[in-house]
Amino acid sequence: MQRALLLENVHPTSVPILESAGYEVDYRKGALDEDELIAALDGVQLLGIRSKTEVTARVLAETDSLVGVGAFSIGTNQINLTAAAHRGVAVFNAPFSNTRSVVELAIAEIISLTRRMTERDRALHSGVWDKSADGSHEVRGRTLGIIGYGNIGSQLSVLAENLGMSVVFYDTAEKLALGNARRAETLDELLETADIVTLHVDGRSGNAGLFGEKQFARMKQDAIFLNLCRGFVVDVDSLAEHITSGHLSGAAVDVFPEEPKKRGDAFESVLRGLPNVILTPHVGGSTEEAQESIGQFVAKKLSDYVTTGSTMLSVNLPNLQLEHTGVGRIKLLHRNVPGVLATVNQIFADHGANIEGQMLATRGDIGYVVTDISDVTERGASKKLQALDATIRLRIRDAFERPEFPPGPAAR
């Protein structure tokens, strides 16, 4: 029986999907540290995590059985993608499934902060009737600045325009502006224009410290700031100073440089207790609808990979869209060096293999060749493929054998 380990309370809809692929599922609510994870992965082929469990190079080096990791989230910065690729471990995430949930939270916070609902709520809970229009505004006619115009940023752009806002965005990549949104040529231009600034950048290491004292100082007086993307992107000490000084009129933060490991743990931040500041515990995508969708999407991707070899939407391996054919399928992840395909096909020819189809894709220094074979006249080809210097991982799924080979000579 093949085994899957699901951590961090991923949505239970993922369990029957993996069970139907022939996997025994170990379902756990909490995250694991590095040593705990290494021990738990003994004999496990599939791992499912959210954002707290880190799959480091050491974790990957100390498990030979792991073939796939599912990040039940948008981000994959908790996984060493390069090390995973060079161990032949496919990584999948959910790039679209919680987009709407994050966007709706951003809209709710923009309206709440612009109307200073946090302060009105706090006053009433303290028994004070503070009926006043001071500092409260409509969002209609105000300018929203979106930093990062990907799936979330672009959808937020559309909804903000429907509320009567003007939208300006900044992205380092070329992006199609939706509706009447306008692209800012520089980040400074956006900061000097926007009444509300919201971050929606990805988790690449180059974005660490993207937003600090210099950027906050560029923002307009009484502007509002939101971060619903990555905690390490923002200098929260600088944000706290600009709130305390009165330069910024409010902020909403859903992600933090350091976050507690599990529900119920203590939370400390310089942002606690500041006026008109909304703090949420990394719940941008945490709606029941989003989590169910993520659970189904990622589990299906892992299931497809182990049953057909399909790597479509893998974030670290060459992408091939594959379907069942009813014949034997040999899947070889290898170093992308000249001559590998010729060597592979010579081995097949030497063993009398009847090749029904073959597909090859590359991604940087990784290659992926999938060969469908209906018959062989001589056994032993798999051992020769596994022994190739370029082999990272060999997997076979067919009617007569389903071996999961350990990483090959090229794995590092």
Automatic annotation (TrEMBL):
The protein's Enzyme Commission number: 1.1.1.399, 1.1.1.95
GO molecular function: (S)-2-hydroxyglutarate dehydrogenase activity; NAD binding; phosphoglycerate dehydrogenase activity
Pfam families listed in its UniProt record: 2-Hacid_dh, 2-Hacid_dh_C, ACT_AHAS_ss
UniProt KW Nucleotide-binding keyword: no
Superkingdom assignment: Bacteria
Enzyme type, top EC level: oxidoreductase
Pathway: Amino-acid biosynthesis; L-serine biosynthesis; L-serine from 3-phospho-D-glycerate: step 1/3
Presence of keyword NAD: yes
Catalytic reaction list: (2R)-3-phosphoglycerate + NAD(+) = 3-phosphooxypyruvate + NADH + H(+); (R)-2-hydroxyglutarate + NAD(+) = 2-oxoglutarate + NADH + H(+)
Biological process terms in GO annotation: L-serine biosynthetic process
Domain ACT, first and last residues per copy: 329-408
UniProt xrefs under Gene3D superfamilies: 3.30.70.260, NAD(P)-binding Rossmann-like Domain (3.40.50.720)
Keywords for this protein: Amino-acid biosynthesis, NAD, Oxidoreductase, Serine biosynthesis
Family: Belongs to the D-isomer specific 2-hydroxyacid dehydrogenase family.
Function recorded in the entry: Catalyzes the reversible oxidation of 3-phospho-D-glycerate to 3-phosphonooxypyruvate, the first step of the phosphorylated L-serine biosynthesis pathway. Also catalyzes the reversible oxidation of 2-hydroxyglutarate to 2-oxoglutarate.
Record-given protein name: D-3-phosphoglycerate dehydrogenase
Organism from which the protein derives: Promicromonospora sukumoe
